[in-house]
Amino acid sequence: MKKRVLIIEDDKSIAELERDYLEINDFSCVISARGDEGLELALNEQFDVIIVDVMLPGMDGFEICTRIREKKEIPVIFLSARSEDIDKIRGLGLGADDYMTKPFSPNELVARVKAHISRRDRLMDTGRGTSVININKLSIDTAAREVRVNQKPVQFTAKEYDLLLFLAQHPGRTYSKEQLFDRIWGMDAFGDISTVTVHIQRIREKIAACGDKLIETVWGVGYRFKA
Q: Minimal CA–CA distance to 93: which of 210, 203, 217?
């Protein structure tokens, strides 16, 4: 069965360019020119990747990403003319998996779509049949991709979950921001490792009720999960 891609883009020529290159590579594509309509499609139909612009009529891409992350872990790629670092960090911080700027290489976009789908499938396969990780008041169910703090479920974005799980699976080992970026994002999705710091801060806020900081900063080196 072909993988399905939702393209939320109000520039018809760009949307059709994305569609054409993806369909050549055996993807099935759906295009929406409005943010609100695109969100409805994202929440009510099954897609393998969503490509979304930031500036859209009806609802902007940031709001779309936030609403998707409340319900689904599907990979989200921003493709926008807004190239400022603050927009990229905001998008990634909201749970997007990637951020590309216009003008863009259609072949690179296809490569990133394939990579994100492959990574998601590997993570899902890895989670099947493995045990629940319990550390202090933190519980990570790798099969359900669910995190609980004090036995209460806490909502994590896909990248926040992947980063927390990786650190929890390697307690006591220190990783640099570069290593974590390469392991979790897996490619030069943005090129700015500051997104690792953003995600670590958000994770710490969500697991703060566990007491002592489980994710330690090793100054000048990186981060480690308490052994």
A: 203
For the stretch 186-220, pLDDT in tens is: 755 545 678 899 999 999 999 998 876 889 998 88
94-136 pLDDT, tens digit per residue, is: 878 888 999 999 999 999 899 888 877 766 655 555 578 888 8
């493995």: which residue's tokens?
130
Interstrand relation of 28-32 and 49-52 (parallel, antiparallel or unpaired): unpaired
Supply the DSSP symbol for 142.
Answer: T
Give the separation between CA 52 and CA 73, rounded to whole angstroms: 15
Token code pair at residue 152: 């209460």
Take residue 82 and report the two structure tokens written for it.
């807004």
The pairing of strands 222-225 and 174-175 is antiparallel
Phi/psi class of residue 151: alpha, beta or left (left: φ > 0; alpha: ψ in -120 to 50)?
left
Least confident of 16-30, 48-62, 74-88: 74-88
Residue 2 half-sphere exposure toward CB, CA atoms < 13 A: 12
Burial of 226 (0-12, 13-18, 19+ CB in 10 A): middle
Angle at 101 between CA 100 and CA 106, to 5 degrees: 70
Dihedral angle over CA of 216, 73, 145, 70, nearest 10? 80
Among the residues of the chain, which ranges form H helices?
A: 12-24, 35-44, 61-69, 85-93, 106-127, 158-168, 177-184, 194-206
